[in-house]
Predict the structure.
Amino acid sequence: MLREEKNSDSLLKKVPMDILNVKPYIPGKPVEEVERELGLSKVIKLASNENPLGPSPKAIQAIQDNAKKVNLYPDGGCFYLKKDLALHLGIEADNIIVGNGSDEIVSIISRVFIQKGDEAIMGDPSFLMYSIDTRLSQGNVVSVPLIDFRLDARRMIEAITYKTKVIFISNPNNPTGTIIGKDEMQEIVDEVPSDVLIVCDEAYYEYVDAPDYPDTLSWVKQGKNIVVLRTFSKIYGLAGLRVGYGIARKGIISILNRARPPFNVNSLAQVAARVSLQDNEHVISGKNLTGQGKKFLYEKLRQLGVLFIPTQANFILIEAGEKTRQIVLALLRKGIIVRDMGAYNLPHYIRLTIGRQEENEAFIREFQKALQ
Ligand SMILES: Cc1ncc(COP(=O)(O)O)c(C=O)c1O
């Protein structure tokens, strides 16, 4: 063994076991990778809950107009984006933290609020980054199984101990697409002790049409210990630029800002997010497209006799049975990327992003063949 290798081994041995045991997040396969590996020229990605319409044309224009300024550092405080968001949401700019995707805010929250031995409560399954970031903070993950594919608010409350620091609520929940309603969320807000932070991750907020979806910003305005997370990655179609934000009372935002890297949101992301926020037409088109796709997919899946979980988001959890892995591979060979839910402890399920009509049709066609 080379001396350098020995040295690097003794270096790695010093990394805490909690961190060594973290399983890295595996994202949906990028289109280019599948094209390269399988020699395909046309690949459909329905694996990462992106907007199939793409970004707003106004965002593309803003990116082009501002490209010549990328020699300058971005505004680290996202002054104008926060100002626009504050107006849009009816809150103040100091109630907002902007992140390199909402992912980054989950990681900042974990770094700030979770220390070695602390507990963070989350659904099982739920968005994987909650457990990864908790472990990276050397905290303990307290998983509460879903009931009927829904987060179990009562058991999440009962799981609180004196070590609990954070409760992560993905609403709608990724990967099930189900929501926690107003009353259950109110119970969580009322019963959680005052030294526990509620994180309500609303990445798919704009897609929800359930009448009992909670108005979480009202709790922020009341000064509760809650951070609401939203993102430009989904309905606004800016996943590649990485912009998300957190909304909370000013004291919480001010603490989170201490752990935020100084230039975490790049300048093109900031301008694109600002114009996307104003392009309501694009948001409505995205929502309508997903609504129509959802209807089509529900109908076809019912005809195939396949079980699925009705969704409030832009993806559907579908039961594919014991041959899920083979089905996912068969789809991949046809150039259709969907997400195998093995990493979410749902080995017999796939998660399908609702795409454009022709993409949904291609999925149904190939899925039917793969099932046979
Ligand atoms: C529930 C949930 N939260 C957060 C994210 C991360 O989004 P962003 O692109 O803003 O980091 C995702 C992405 O899939 C998600 O499903």
